[in-house]
Amino acid sequence: MVDLEKFVVSAEFDSLPPGSGYAAARDMFGEPELMEPGRRGRPMFVKYGDVEFTFRDDFLTKAAFSLERGAPVDGGSIQVQGFWPESKRTREAVGELLAANDVSWELDVLMSSISTEESSQVWITERDVHLAFFEGILQRAVASYGSFQRQ
Questions:
Q1: 29: closest CA among 11, 44, 51?
Q2: How far is CA 134 from CA 38, 70, 105, 112, 113, in A?
Q3: 69-79: buried (b, 16+ CB within 10 Å) or exposed (e) per residue?
């Protein structure tokens, strides 16, 4: 079972570390429901329900999940938990989760809305997890792995 709250805190997606190959993900989680092979400099994209992975040159470079309002995360063949009930998705609740784990975060002013009519914000944790909120509710979390070594 993959704990998405742990992912937001640590940037680690269960036992699939940065730099893992696609075969490791497939062995761990089964066949994805969507797989776009990499070509012409574009990375491979793999999707299991609301969970996504990006592989470049067969190295895991990004893990992400999206959240739909009013529903728990659908991990496809990946069993996931966390951020349910929806009250755990508020900016305040996520801030408390991060603070309880001594993880700092700051607003990304370039990626956040400056309009008062739009209330979308992107926050970045010290572990480089990008958290996208709309109207104060977490919608997406993305961890990019820039430097890693093959496990």
A1: 51
A2: 31, 14, 17, 10, 10
A3: eeebbbbbebe
- Counting Cβ atoms within 10 Å, is residue 147 exposed (0-12), middle (13-18) or buried (19+)? exposed
Q: Are strands 59-66 and 51-56 parallel, antiparallel or unpaired?
A: antiparallel
Residue 115, classified by CB atoms within 10 Å of its CB into exposed (0-12), middle (13-18) or buried (19+), is exposed
The 10s digit of each residue's pLDDT in 61-111 is 999 999 999 999 999 999 999 999 999 999 999 999 999 999 999 999 888
Q: Which amino acid is at 53?
A: F
CA-to-CA separations, 46 to 21, 23, 56, 102, in angstroms, rounded: 12, 12, 11, 31
Q: Which residues contact 103 (CB under 8 A, 6 or more apart)?
A: 9, 125, 126, 127
What does the pLDDT read at residue 15?
Answer: 83
Quick one: CA dihedral 80, 84, 88, 91, positive or negative?
positive
Are 20 and 151 a contacting pair, CB within 8 Å? Answer: yes
